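Working notes for the structural subgroup meeting. M.R. asked for a predicted model of this chain before we commit to crystallization trials. I am recording the input and output together here so anyone reviewing the notebook later can reproduce the run.

Input as submitted:
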Amino acid sequence: MVEIATSLLSLDTENVTKDIYNLEVAHTDYIHIDVMDGKFVEKDTEKRMFDYTNQIKAISNIPIDVHFMVEDIKKQLEMYIPFMPNCITFHYEACKNKEEVFHYINKIKEEEIKVGIAISPKTKLETIYEFLPFIHMVLMMTVEPGKGGQQLIPETLEKIKLLYDYRNEKKLEFNIEADGGINLETISSIKQVGVDIAVVGSAITKSSDYKQTIELLKS
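Returned structure, recorded in token form:
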């Protein structure tokens, strides 16, 4: 059964404490923190996501799934490592070379935090193959990173299926996470291609019943 990571991107900031509590009661598996710097992507959520993470740690034990859509990975690691999230994922495209990718993989693992690599829809799978034995998760963007409310790009499903088959062929153990345009209409196609964790935002946070929506997404 697919796990659900609820993105807080579309939450109303005034009710975030109540919403976090409601998500915990609704049994979301993770809370997904979308950290954007206004450079790597157009949107800037740095302050808001840092504040949200502070609030989550103060009132909840839900595992935190952090996704950096930023140029300065080092700066964000300094901010988020103290929270000890379940996983920190950074973009392959934000790194200058493979040595930098390995540097951040090792840095995060040294802190006893799971590490993931995210790739955008146009990035070829082959570019991350050499890193797969050393990471815990691949986050496949199913929309262009940086904006909420986009429609899932169908071609990304084929890429996920290829990654799923590659993982089985090489007997690797990383999770596959998909992020972007996932809702009650698209979740079945996500499940069919082998996704382990689905990131869902407004389909949950804009629904009238978080628990029912999460149950429907999982069923």
